[in-house]
Amino acid sequence: MVRKIRKKFKQPICYTFYQAATKQNKLVQLLKEVIREVHRTGLVIVATISDQGRSNEGAIKILNAETREYCIRQSKLYKDDFYEVEVDDERLQIVHLFDVPHLIKCLRNNLLTKDLKFTINGVQRTAKWEHIIQLYSADSAIPDSKMLPRLSDKHVIPEKITKMKVKCATQVFSHRVSAIMSFLATQNIIDSDAVETATLLLFFDKLFDSMNGSFDKVVDGKIYRTAVKTNSVHHQLWEESLPILSSMKFVGKNMKTVSVPTLRNWMVTIRGFQYL
Fold it and tell me: Which InterPro entries would you find in this protein's record (predicted)?
């Protein structure tokens, strides 16, 4: 599908049918073919976007490897910020981004079963899903006076969560949930360590807004949900977010670190936005 950056326009352009998942090499071939044909129409391709499917990640790694090899032969510096596709007599530089709604859902899914350790301002913190359950239970104790009326079992209770709906993740990773969790934790109504989970929720609320917003003006005080401009606040947030993301690691119930590609792909996507 082709989609414009500044205007609301999208057009499906290619369909494929396979009995199983598309092989990585076949996906690379298809991607190159589509990019070439779209470029010849006069449209300028600056980025490709996909979810974190294994074939998708594998195809981009192949394209990065091909570009790296070409740059080495040409004695050019290459930092994996883009890949190149040869079209007629030119080489197009294209950035790959991972779908941000998919990233936030995958982050939530991992937090359901693992704790997330991260460092902000030199202080290591730990976010736990059990803190979100505590908050939800405390808020639901008086049904007619809920501070978080949007939250339901489908947002919080692991076996009831609607995992395909983005809003069931973003409404948890929100400024309001973070603020109320922090307040209840400081009052010892829920575990005092929940302030660390509240910090994580606010961090990803800002980060998600910064890469998924399109408003020209600030709405409801959400300064990062606006369109990115040369001197907008997004750039500082992204720069500050990278070391925080690089410090993150998921820890299983056995206290062993679990490798989760989602954390790396958040950083890949931020660097892609910065490159653009």
Answer: TNP-like_GBD, TNP-like_RNaseH_N
Q: How many helices (H) and strands (E) does the chain have?
A: 10, 9
The whole-number average pLDDT for the span 187-212 is 95
Of the segments 17-21, 222-226, 236-240, which one has the largest average pLDDT value? 236-240
Name the residue with higher pLDDT: 224 or 92: 92
If you ran DSSP here, which 8-state letter would residue 216 be given?
Answer: S
Domain residue limits, the chain: 2-98, 101-275
Interatomic CA distance for residues 15 and 1, integer angstroms: 9
Pair 77, 142: CB distance under 8 Å? no
Residues 109, 52: contact at Cβ < 8 Å?
no
Amino acid at 197: T
Pick from 127, 117, 108, 123: nearest CA to 247: 117
According to DSSP, residue 269 is labeled H
Here the tokens at position 61 are 């790694």
In the structure encoding, which two tokens stand for residue 104, read together? 């936030």
- Residue 89: the pLDDT is 86
Per residue in 21-49, pLDDT (tens digit) is 888 999 999 999 999 999 999 999 999 99
CA distance 224 to 208: 9
Distance CA 106, CA 264 (A): 12
SS3 state at 94: strand
Q: How far is it, in rounded angstroms, from Cα 132 to Cα 204?
A: 15
> Which residue in the block uniquely carries the two structure tokens 């300028």?
44
Q: Which residues are CB-neighbours of 56 under 8 A, at least 6 positions away? A: 27, 50
Cβ pair 275, 139 in contact under 8 A: no
At residue 87, the 3 state secondary structure works out as strand
- Output the DSSP codes for 180-213: HHHHHHHTTSS-TTHHHHHHHHHHHHHHHHHTT-
